[in-house]
């Protein structure tokens, strides 16, 4: 959960989500689920995570330093041209990535 | 849970029903498992470590089990056998070794084993008059707090099976360990720390490894949690730099809610273990640093244990154990290597004793003055003892002792046991028990009894029959009880 490596993986996941996941939040979330769990999210799961995404967008928009701090960690790809809004968006999707990588579903394959 | 429910649950593990396209199976299963609860309702999983009532009033609330891995040499430490001096170097009498098997000795061919007397100086101490060798000057000062047990027997003479036996009541791996049974039965009274903690010290881990603190067939929530004794007790406890605290909490909540959705759909208890583990880990982000903050302990306390903050050692682990029970942890198990002195019972034994003598005595004294000894049961010992016969491994004049399962020594202190009293006795060779006979199952039955648990009633059905820590034996040793 707090493993430094997992944070980097979440950042890499966020990068792919933003680049390849489509335009809308739902499209991107669906893509994230496809990458990590090989399936589409159930309605309840989508609802919960979109709510989480909105929370994180708010956190990282309000605290502009937080987004920058996250992205300038070693191992994270910081685009030095990123606007504060872009940084906040990337941080929010990294947080979503971190949730997905810590799910029992991701860690346990049966 | 009856067999039908179990079979259905095992099908769930293959997600047969949940992957069924029609979805009917999932609804049927959900109704079977939740008996009436609507599938839309989310239930929060109960804390598996929550304190549960004992079967009768307990004497002990916590246990600290000091496991000396490798088999400490009782004949050089506690079980004084002057009669061996006359036989020193002579061939072991036939009646002793006839028909017996040992781990490494040739008893029937090549060189017959010779007796090895202890070359340590023994004296009697305290009102109890216990014999203690010069190897343990500090423990000698607390003998009147100890309940000394001689002549305990066990079943297997190799380390891993014997350790397995000491921990799980069986020489075959796969069963739950003591700490798992106990926390499964009565939980723990610490919300912020695991109920079953394992601390290790010495050059290597105990043979048998994590299986020794496993939960076996019990839910995995009850397995022992190994802590490190230097630095953070658990790696990666702290929130990584760059993550705001609010985000950390929200992240955990999202993970929990999503895992809960899966739990509701499948009823897989491994998921509830994971949910509980993450919640515990979050609580430990605060409780962990506080636990290992030795700066709060006085200089005098640190010196009494011989503990150095941040340095991994048995002494540190003893102090940590005291702090753990102070914070309500139910079962703390310490493993200290290395006691397996086959080749040389001289300097290596000096070393091992030096490492544990002062801290173990300090633990007893410290718990006493913290007012915790009356509620804490301390148990000290290895998985077996060592033989009165020598084992020579061609190191010139150095000799060691082999594994001995017929009679070994443990001691207890604290809640519910009679201080200054000796139970059991060995013959003049220190080979067999001639007094009250105890085996490992009896130790288990007794410690469960002290916790307020009837050992025959703490059971779990698996593979068609009821299992318990004491398997099909064990008696509560009344003579041990205060």
Q: Keyphrases for this structure?
A:
heterodimer, A: 110 residues, mainly alpha, 73% helix, globular, B: 482 residues, alpha/beta, nine-stranded mixed sheet, two-stranded antiparallel ribbon, 13 helices, 15 strands, 32% helix, 17% strand
Strand content of chain A: under 5%
How big a fraction of the residues of chain B is strand? 15-25%
Largest protein-protein interface? A-B, 29 and 30 residues
Distance between the termini of chain B: 38 Å
Radius of gyration of chain B: 25 Å
What spatial form of chain A do the alpha-carbon principal axes imply?
A: globular
**3D shape of chain B:** globular
User: Structural class of the secondary structure composition of chain B?
Assistant: alpha/beta
Number of helices of chain B: 13
Oligomer: heterodimer
How many E-type strands of chain B?
A: 15
Count of domain modules of chain A = 1
How many runs of DSSP E, i.e. beta strands of chain A? 0
* Major pleated sheet of chain B: 9 strands, mixed
Mean pLDDT of chain A: 89
Give the termini distance of chain A in whole angstroms.
Answer: 21 Å
**By helix and strand content of chain A, what is the structural category?**
mainly alpha
Low-confidence stretches of chain B: 20-27, 29-44
List segments of chain A where confidence is low: pLDDT < 50 over at least 5 consecutive residues.
none
How does this structure look, described?
The complex is a heterodimer of chains A (110) and B (482). With 110 residues, chain A is mainly α. Chain A is built from 6 helices and no strands. Chain A has helices at residues 4-20, 25-37, 43-62, 64-71, 84-101, 104-107. The model of chain A has no long low-confidence stretch (mean pLDDT 89). Chain B contains 13 helices and 15 strands. Chain B has helices spanning 3-13, 24-34, 83-87, 94-97, 137-140, 159-168, 178-186, 245-266, 269-291, 299-305, 314-326, 347-369, 440-450; strands spanning 62-68, 122-125, 130-133, 146-153, 196-201, 225-227, 331-336, 376-381, 385-395, 398-404, 408-414, 421-423, 438-439, 460-462, 465-467. In chain B, a hairpin with a 4-residue loop joins strand 2 (122-125) and strand 3 (130-133). Chain B is globular, with a radius of gyration of 25 Å. Chain A binds chain B through residues 1-4, 7, 42, 44-45, 48-49, 52, 55-56, 59, 63, 66, 69-70, 73, 95, 98-99, 102-105, 107-108, 110, and chain B through 13-15, 236-244, 246-247, 250-252, 254-255, 257-259, 261-262, 270-271, 274-275, 278, 281.
């Amino acid at each position: 959960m707090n493993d430094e490596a997992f944070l980097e993986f979440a950042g890499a996941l966020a990068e792919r989500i933003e680049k390849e996941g489509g335009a809308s939040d739902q499209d991107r979330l669906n893509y994230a689920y496809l990458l990590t769990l090989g399936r589409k999210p159930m309605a309840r799961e989508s609802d919960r995570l979109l709510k989480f995404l909105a929370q994180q967008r708010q956190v990282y928009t309000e605290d502009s330093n937080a987004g920058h701090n996250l992205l300038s960690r070693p191992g994270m790809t910081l685009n030095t041209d990123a606007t504060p809004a872009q940084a906040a968006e990337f941080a929010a999707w990294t947080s979503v990535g971190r949730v997905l990588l810590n799910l029992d579903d991701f860690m346990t394959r049966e | 849970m009856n067999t039908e429910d179990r079979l259905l649950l095992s099908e769930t593990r293959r997600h047969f029903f949940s992957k069924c396209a029609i979805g009917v199976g999932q609804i049927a299963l959900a109704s079977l498992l939740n008996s009436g609860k609507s599938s839309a309702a989310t239930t929060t999983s109960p804390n598996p470590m929550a304190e549960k009532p004992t079967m009768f009033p307990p004497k002990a609330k916590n246990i600290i089990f000091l496991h000396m891995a490798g088999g400490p040499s009782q004949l050089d430490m506690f079980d004084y056998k002057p009669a061996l001096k006359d036989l020193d170097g002579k061939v072991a009498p036939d009646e002793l070794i006839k028909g017996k098997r040992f781990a490494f000795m040739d008893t029937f061919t090549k060189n017959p084993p010779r007796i090895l007397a202890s070359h340590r100086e023994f004296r009697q101490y305290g009102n109890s008059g216990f014999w203690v060798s010069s190897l343990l000057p500090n423990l000698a000062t607390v003998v009147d707090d100890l309940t000394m047990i001689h002549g305990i027997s066990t079943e297997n003479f190799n380390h891993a099976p014997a350790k397995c036996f000491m921990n799980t009541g069986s020489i075959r791996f796969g069963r739950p360990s003591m700490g798992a049974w106990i926390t499964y039965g009565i939980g723990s009274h610490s919300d912020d720390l695991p109920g079953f903690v394992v601390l290790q010290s010495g050059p290597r881990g105990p043979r048998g490894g994590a299986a020794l603190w496993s939960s076996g067939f019990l839910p995995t929530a009850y397995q022992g949690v190994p802590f490190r004794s230097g630095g953070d007790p658990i790696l990666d406890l702290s929130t990584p730099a760059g993550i705001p605290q609010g985000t950390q909490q929200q992240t955990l909540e999202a993970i929990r809610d999503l895992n809960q959705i899966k739990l509701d759909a499948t009823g897989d208890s491994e998921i509830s273990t994971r949910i509980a583990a993450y919640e515990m880990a979050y609580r430990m982000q605060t409780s962990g640093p506080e636990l290992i903050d030795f700066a709060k302990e006085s200089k005098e306390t640190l010196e009494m244990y011989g503990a150095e903050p941040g340095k991994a050692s048995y002494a540190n682990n003893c102090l940590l154990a005291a702090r753990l029970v102070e914070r309500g942890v139910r079962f703390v198990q310490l493993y200290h290597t290395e006691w397996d002195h086959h080749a040389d019972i001289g300097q290596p034994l000096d070393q091992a004793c030096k490492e544990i003598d002062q801290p173990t005595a300090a633990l007893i004294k410290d718990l006493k003055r913290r007012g915790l000894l009356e509620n804490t049961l301390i148990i000290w010992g290895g998985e077996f003892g060592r033989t009165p016969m020598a084992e020579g491994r061609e190191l010139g004049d150095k000799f060691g002792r082999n594994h001995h399962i017929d009679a070994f020594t443990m001691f207890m202190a604290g809640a519910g046991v009679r201080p200054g009293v000796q139970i059991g006795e060995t013959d003049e060779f220190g080979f067999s028990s001639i007094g009250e006979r105890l085996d490992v199952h009896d130790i288990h039955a007794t410690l469960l009894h002290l916790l307020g648990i009837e050992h025959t009633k703490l059971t779990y059905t698996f593979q068609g029959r009821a299992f318990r820590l004491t398997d099909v034996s064990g008696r509560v040793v009344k003579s041990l009880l205060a």
